[in-house]
Amino acid sequence: MAGYGLVVRFVLKEGREATFDDLMARTVPAIAAGEPGTLVYTVHTVADEPRVRIFYELYRDRAAFDAHEEQPHTRAFLDAREELVESVSVDWVTRW
Question: Coil, strand, or helix at residue 15?
């Protein structure tokens, strides 16, 4: 199984770190509880870069990713992130 994955790097707006982390504290458990096609969804902080968060996401397939994007908790995150995030970069990856 190759999976369908991405690594996302968020640089948060100054002073928005706690709000972003609170949002993720609500979002990640909802993903784990309600998305069987999401195999891995983890958020990391980065040493010496307090405004950076790295997400690693692995889905069973593209359909599972598409289903993730339509979940209410994901939509809420996407709607809120513009106020919290300075920049974002995405690398699409395939597990081998």
Answer: coil
